[in-house]
Amino acid sequence: MKAITYSTYGTPTALELVEVPEPKVGPGEVLVRVKAAGVNPVDWKLAAGFLGHVLEVRHPVIPGWDVAGTVEAVGPDTYDYAVGDEVYGYVRKEWVQLGTYAELVAAPVRTLAPKPRELTFEEAAGLPLAGLTSYQAVTRAGVAAGQTVVIHSAAGGVGSLGVQIAVHLGARVIGTASARNHDYLRSLGAEPVLYGDGVAERIRELAPDGVDAGLDFYGEGGVELLQSIVRPGGPVISVADNDADSKGAKHIWARASTADLTALAELADTGTITVKVGHVLPLSDAAAAWELSATGQARGKIVLTV
């Protein structure tokens, strides 16, 4: 099968489209024929060696965790899916090696759920990591109807999903963003606040009695900002600050969860959340996709089609 690989830590130029053996399919796994694979910043950060101290990486690596496709085969003692089923998932395994930038990927069933019916394969491939991150941040914070929540970096791929989920739960959402994204946040149901100097004061003007919870999808001072405006004892959750726990907040990583993926699919199928795909490239252009992702200027999800 064809797959994108890299054999050493490096830049996007290290990526190659090569022929590799088809993956074995073990108990509790299915073989997925990949229709689309989502591109996330963690993909190229892993390839650059930034997370080697956290995750086991075994070269050569096929990158990618997000996938949407169809079941090609099932492993022994695997009755969760049948051949031909449409699935999507966050295929993060015990170590980094056999990912989703390929024609086929062996995926543990715990990492998959039925694909949202109303989404294209490209849209579905853009949902798992960003969706799980935002969904689990919102739920870990205990966001509920009637609360006021601040989402720092609310217009990005993760933040915009967090806005939609929190609004769906009945919360009042204040979101920080650049001025060009304020109309977009309003369309999602959030009250936008400009980034930069004075942001804490601008939030306090909107919520003079304080806020109930803060979600940091930015890093670089986001935890401290939210701690200064969240009421004492209120949760501050960060997906971007690795030192959040030492600061009295909580740092979370997205966890593969069939239940959470199923909940996200239901939200997508009812139109409660939307997945904005900004760029669709063929698998052979994975390096260009990484370069685009690294600029931080891409609007919407970047997806590779296989």
From TrEMBL:
Gene Ontology MF, one: oxidoreductase activity
SUPFAM superfamilies linked: GroES-like, NAD(P)-binding Rossmann-fold domains
One Pfam family in the UniProt entry: ADH_N
Highest taxon in the source lineage: Bacteria
InterPro entries to which the protein is assigned, alphabetical: ADH-like_N, Chloroplast_QOR, ER, GroES-like_sf, NAD(P)-bd_dom_sf
Stated name of the protein: Zinc-type alcohol dehydrogenase-like protein
Organism: Streptomyces lavendulae subsp. lavendulae
